Amino acid sequence: MESQEQDPKNQNVVKNKELHIWEAMIPIIALICMLAYNVYVFGDLALDGSNQFILLLGGAVAAIVGYFNKTPYDLMIEEVSQNIKSTTGAILILLMVGALAGTWLISGIIPTMIYYGLQILNPTIFLAACVVICAIISIATGSSWTTSATVGIALIGIANALGISLGMTAGAVLSGAYFGDKLSPLSDTTNLAPAMAGTDLFTHIEYMLFTTVPTIVITLIVFVIIGLNLDPSGEADTSIILGSIEEAFTISPWLFLVPVIVIAMIVKKTSPLIALLIGTLLGGIAALVFQPDIVATLGGGENLTFESGYKGVMNAITVSTAIETDNVSLNDLFASGGMAGMLGTIWLIICAMVFGGIMDAIGAFAAISNFMLNLFESTFGLFASTVFTCIGLNVTASDQYLAIVVPGKMYAQAYRDKGLAPENLSRTLEDSGTVTSVLVPWNTCGAYQSGVLGVHVADYFFYAIFNWLSPFMTLIFAAFSIKIRQLSTKNVD
User: Fold this and answer.
1) Alpha-carbon gap, residue 474 to 122, rounded angstroms
2) Three-class SS state of 322
């Protein structure tokens, strides 16, 4: 008995046995109700801080449950501390992602990707081209919201001029945008999912390819077939946008060397932090070589000097920067928050870890995991439960971040108990939490995308093929045990 009192882990085991499933669900239900109301009140602004505080309130509810179950306060704090400590790597990667995004913007790497991406637009296969263009831009920027708000709007305008269904076009735009958002290391959700599940960023991205690539291939095939049966009139003119990009940046294929080097390092299993740091530094060097005027302006000088160059690159790495063009629709696209821009996601992760740590300490997640393991004895049942929970939270809590955070903490132990590697969970969170948010009209993503593109969710729902097909794809892989990685082995095919 004495060893149990001195060892927090042993205490945790005792409390896990005492907590009933209905007690374990009290904080979850309270959290969902508070988040749903908070999103209703604040809308898109809920992520500015109020949702984070709601997570802390959810932790307070969990602490009250723990108090009545005689869980020591010190144990709760210790579990919170361990939870936050476990996200150290993810937080550092997020900061480096923000830094890399800044230097890749001012160097012209991201604008160059967009420039060449737009040139593949062909009216004959317009819808498929929309998917490809938005995928390229979203991978480059890490943001489906920015992609749809800039190039997406332009593509909607082109579709309107060509007489192509706006619902089809919006579905193609969102399919490509969320494909890129899901796989881009610059995306906050792509960083958030592995942080919640307990794996690393690039393992998560690599593992997602197994379900994501077949899904986007099917999506493209469907849009090619639809496109071949359309009869668009006129031509898609992107010359104005391309001209604005050329005027603002020096566009050169040589800039692709930087992302190629970073990708090669990732393939060679280089540490993510090292790869991102080198990518950031190479982006800064490329900025000095290819965009000296932009760097000088950001550094507060008229000409590039050592001081203005240093300040310009450091500003791009650390704080918000924006490159103005003569095309208003491009200005939001050519903006980066730097490391400071990632603080909102880091704040969300820390608050989620507080909630999750207290839930761990009181034995709530263990009780839920045991219940789920008994309810769904098969591996497929666990995957299906995760998918339905993510989609359910997108509908009830109305926010994709919470559809990743809450199930991620709920099911992490259940996946470990089943002997499943954490990347199974992180992939499922993205396949069902990230991409389906845009299919719910009252979800922040659905409301935003519908408003930006000017197309109602009901009109693009069916054509957002990638978004609704992704959860089915992850369930198919689970049902047939395709690429389900175990903790003790490499792969089980």
Assistant:
1) 32
2) strand
Distances (CA, A) of 224 to 158, 227, 401, 475: 18, 5, 32, 25
Residue 122 vs residue 194, higher pLDDT: 194
In the beta sheet, which residues pair with residue 336? Answer: 321
Model's pTM, two decimal places?
Answer: 0.69
Instruction: Give pLDDT tens digits for 50-105.
Output: 888 988 999 999 999 998 888 888 999 998 888 788 778 767 877 887 888 889 88
Q: At what angle do helices 188-197 and 88-106 cross, to 10 degrees?
A: 170
| CA distance linking residue 243 with residue 444, whole number of Å | 33
CA distance 90 to 96: 10
Domain boundaries, the chain: 12-89+342-479
Secondary structure class of 335 (helix, strand, coil): strand
- Kind of pairing between the strands at 321-322 and 335-336: antiparallel
Question: For residue 486, which phi and psi values (nearest 5 degrees)?
Answer: -95, 160
Residue from 379, 370, 408, 386 nearest 492 by CA = 379
Q: Which residue has the higher pLDDT, 236 or 2?
A: 236
Q: Which tens digits make up the pLDDT trace of 322-348?
A: 888 887 767 777 888 889 887 877 887
Q: Provide DSSP, 415-451.
A: HHHTTB-HHHHHHHHIIIIIGGGGG-TTSHHHHHHHH
Q: Could you tell me if residue 305 is left (phi over 0), alpha (psi between -120 and 50 degrees) or otherwise beta? A: beta
CB 151 within 8 A of CB 114: yes
Other beta carbons within 10 angstroms of residue 343's beta carbon come to: 15
Give the distance, in angstroms, between the CA of residue 385 and the centroid of all CA atoms in the same chain: 21
Q: Measure the CA–CA gap between 88 and 456, rounded to whole angstroms.
A: 40
> What's the rounded mean pLDDT across residues 297-314?
91
- Rounded to the nearest 5 percent, the helix, strand and coil shares of the chain are 80, 0, 20
3-class DSSP state of 311: helix
- What are the backbone angles phi and psi of residue 182, rounded to the nearest 5°? -70, -35
Give me 41's structure tokens: 């009140």
Token reading at 61? 């509810």
Find the DSSP H helices in 107-165: 109-118, 126-141, 144-147, 153-162
Q: From CA 15, how far away is CA 278, in angstroms rounded?
A: 46
| Site of tokens 């230097």 | 103
Instruction: Give tens-digit pLDDT for 4-41.
Output: 333 433 434 333 446 788 888 899 889 888 888 887 88
- Rounded Cα gap, residues 414 and 197, in angstroms: 11
